[in-house]
Amino acid sequence: PKLPIHTRSSSRLLFAAKFLKQRESTGFSPAFAKQHYKMLVLGGGSGGIAMSARMKRMFGAENVAVVEPSEMHYYQPIWTLVGAGAKTVASSGRSTASVMPSGVKWVKSKVQEINPEKNTVRTDDGTEISYEYLIVALGLQLHYEKIKGLPEGFEHPNIGSNYSVQTVEKTWKALQNFKEGNAVFTFPNTPVKCPGAPQKIMYLSDAYLRKTGKRSKANLIYNTSLPVLFAIKKYADALWDVVKERDLQVNLRQNLIEVRADKREAVFENLDKPGETKVIEYEMLHVTPPMGPNSAVKGSPLGDEAGWLDLDKESLQHKRYPNVFGIGDCTNLPTPRTAAAVAAESGILNRTISKILKNEKPDKKYDGYTSCPLVTSYNTVILAEFDYTGQPLETFPINQAKERRIMYHMKADFMPHLYWHGLLRGLWGGPEPYRKLLHLGMK
Ligand SMILES: Cc1cc2nc3c(=O)[nH]c(=O)nc-3n(C[C@H](O)[C@H](O)[C@H](O)COP(=O)(O)OP(=O)(O)OC[C@H]3O[C@@H](n4cnc5c(N)ncnc54)[C@H](O)[C@@H]3O)c2cc1C
Ligand SMILES: *[C@@H]1O[C@H](CO)[C@@H](O)[C@H](O)[C@H]1NC(C)=O
Ligand SMILES: *[C@@H]1O[C@H](CO)[C@@H](O)[C@H](O)[C@H]1NC(C)=O
Ligand SMILES: *[C@@H]1O[C@H](CO)[C@@H](O)[C@H](O)[C@H]1NC(C)=O
Questions:
Q1: Which of 162, 186, 262, 396 is most buried, by CB atoms within 10 Å?
Q2: Are both 34-139+294-438 and 144-291 of the same fold?
Q3: pTM for the complete prediction?
């Protein structure tokens, strides 16, 4: 079809602009690509986008770049609710382009190598980018392949995992198709992000099976590698009450090592008696995969012995490279890895970097604040909030270990809003100021 002249030329222009942009962002054209940035951010997830918004204000958009290969950005916390059919997977994602702060350069490729001695980063297409300051926000890696029989096993029905966008909708299917038998939920023998999520899925499944009248035909079993139900005693006590009241079976120190999806069998190892394994038949299996450090960090001088980004836990500055900083799941900060922690860290890191730029010592200290809304049904949540010392650090002047409806609305409706419009725009640094305010009247 013939387009009017002006449309044709403007669409050609658009095409040319797109083409140049693409060449530039994939780094194929050194003539267009700027290969040096004052502030380079690795990873465009929760931490990377939040920091790039803040760094844009500090350095100017043209001096900031973000390396991120993914077209889509996901609000991962909502996946727990997707698995239960309470939200759709589509509602959890937006294009990376739409969350990238305007004017900040998006380098659409994968970090292959980080060389902090030379202040350079190499991407998978061979481009070398140099930097003055670096923020590492690469997240952690899922290792389904460390369980024998996975990931191929996901091709079978009755098995799902809320931890990956590819498998989350399968959990919902498995739950809907449930007839009778064992519903098994696992927790791996590694650090994980949002350590509450593996059991939230069980509580929601319980609620769903009750709602649909199938609960009496179901055995809900939570086999976890951990020696406790939850790390913080106050919340663990509350959760044990929920577990007893709902008749859920919890087995500690049990690690999933194999899935025989064709026979619907899961094999667990008893961590206290190495070599002792047990096979359990399932009608539905939810796998929380083993997780580990990001490979680009692990393979660089920036990692600690285990491969996590080696940070000072108060200033979030790298222990050996003073122009390198980090945030989020890729770090070795000794607190559970959550988006809530990322929010608190983003405010501290903003402060640390502004001090370093002025040649002053970082002064504000990260206290390890993290939070985990433990969804216990379709309308209740226990909101766990605590710090490095494992002490509850609650925002609201009420006992948050109690199951509460208001907290469910926070999790399902308010938190996503705060994520997209607050955290990602560099405007939300955690609830500390509000906590102080809300507790004032109570003291
Ligand atoms: C099921 C589930 C439930 C959760 N529930 C909650 C909750 O209730 N509350 C809460 O606070 N948190 C929750 N979380 C955790 C939260 O989502 C994460 O802690 C948070 O997103 C971490 O942010 P991040 O920036 O460190 O990592 P991510 O957001 O994962 O971002 C890392 C980014 O790095 C990119 N990347 C990786 N490798 C490379 C590379 N080589 N080169 C370039 N880019 C790369 C990735 O594509 C990704 O975009 C949950 C997570 C899951 C999965
Ligand atoms: C995901 O989480 C929901 C809510 O806990 C749970 O009911 C569902 O079974 C899970 N689904 C998947 C795909 O994991
Ligand atoms: C896992 O759960 C089953 C069922 O409750 C239990 O019998 C078993 O001891 C647990 N651990 C292992 C290793 O299977
Ligand atoms: C981040 O740092 C900049 C520069 O020091 C400062 O102006 C800004 O207020 C800081 N933002 C927050 C939320 O602390």
A1: 162
A2: yes
A3: 0.89
